[in-house]
């Protein structure tokens, strides 16, 4: 690794956006520390990077593992950390009322609490460089949609934490931004497909006449997402732009659908509700 390279810590690098970001940053000369959970994925990532990248086995919900990773980074980069990219996350495709408290708790643990854990552990290194923090959110962190209500709740929480931290970390000139992708071609849609298939068979009998159709339409929308034109590499390029920007934006929207959803904030919420209910087969009242 180049000793003068800017050091970046990226989480969730096994697949998708995190993997694409780690590879792109390494290619562009950053010193990349890539956090991920699988040894095989770690070996494959190192092989694909051809240098400038170190993998760290990391569960972002475990303080001890985060502390160990930060110690490794500090030893290799005593000058500090240029940026932390909080990308690790999980999804859940389910009707909100059929989501268990345990499932909701897990979503918050990974998608909202873990980024805060990472920030707390990385702050000493970020203060040295007046670094920046990139939190990968989602357009579902600005607009809650049917079938992803619990996931949206966790991303809304991440957005709120980022908004407050932008002010609270200002004295150390640490800047924060949110990346808001729309639908991106990642393995999350394969996982969602499996979740929908399993959960559709467990819909309570009294909800089946309505939610059976709801889940069917949810599966159709999931398949559209799996074919999205927005690739992980597209998001990675936006993250690179944020790391190089002289003036960091508060938000970066990625994908045409993300820009389209951003316009919903100008539409009356009850009108949005009516449209979503009709599209998802939930418009007719049940006797």
From TrEMBL:
Pfam families documented for this protein: adh_short
EC number(s) per entry: 1.1.1.163
Single Gene Ontology MF annotation: cyclopentanol dehydrogenase activity
Keyword Nucleotide-binding on entry: no
CDD domains cross-referenced by the UniProt entry: 17beta-HSD-like_SDR_c
InterPro entries: KR_dom, NAD(P)-bd_dom_sf, Sc_DH/Rdtase_CS, SDR_fam
Gene Ontology annotations of biological process type: steroid metabolic process
PROSITE patterns: ADH_SHORT
Catalytic class of the enzyme: oxidoreductase
Keywords for the protein's UniProt record, in alphabetical order: Oxidoreductase
SMART domains registered for this protein in UniProt: PKS_KR (SM00822)
Keyword Oxidoreductase among UniProt keywords: yes
This protein's name: Cyclopentanol dehydrogenase
Source organism: Bythopirellula polymerisocia
Classification of source organism: Bacteria, Pseudomonadati, Planctomycetota, Planctomycetia, Pirellulales
Protein's gene: cpnA
């Amino acid at each position: 690794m180049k000793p003068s390279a800017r050091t970046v810590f990226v989480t969730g690098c096994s697949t998708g956006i995190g993997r694409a970001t780690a590879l792109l940053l390494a290619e562009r000369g950053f010193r990349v520390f890539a956090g991920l959970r699988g040894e095989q994925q770690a070996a494959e990532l190192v092989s694909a990077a051809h240098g400038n990248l170190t993998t760290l086995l990391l569960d972002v919900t475990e303080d001890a593992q985060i502390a160990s990773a930060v110690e490794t980074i500090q030893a290799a980069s005593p000058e500090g950390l240029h940026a932390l990219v909080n990308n690790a996350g999980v999804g859940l495709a389910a009707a909100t009322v059929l989501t268990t408290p345990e499932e909701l708790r897990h979503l918050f643990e990974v998608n909202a609490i873990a980024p805060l854990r990472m920030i707390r552990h990385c702050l000493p290194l970020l203060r040295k460089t007046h670094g920046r923090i990139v939190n990968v959110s989602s357009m579902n962190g600005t607009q809650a949609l049917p079938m992803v209500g619990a996931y949206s709740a966790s991303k809304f929480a991440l957005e709120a934490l980022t908004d407050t931290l932008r002010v609270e970390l200002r004295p150390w000139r640490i800047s924060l931004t949110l990346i808001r992708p729309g639908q991106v071609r990642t393995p999350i849609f394969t996982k969602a497909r499996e979740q929908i298939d399993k959960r559709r068979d467990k819909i309570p009998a009294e909800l089946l006449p309505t939610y059976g159709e709801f889940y069917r339409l949810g599966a159709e929308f999931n398949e559209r997402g799996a074919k999205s034109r927005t690739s992980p590499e597209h998001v990675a390029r936006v993250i690179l732009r944020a790391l190089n920007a002289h003036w960091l934006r508060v938000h970066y929207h990625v994908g045409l659908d993300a820009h389209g959803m951003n316009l919903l904030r100008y539409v009356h919420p009850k009108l949005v509700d009516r449209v979503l209910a009709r599209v998802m087969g939930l418009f007719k009242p049940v006797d």
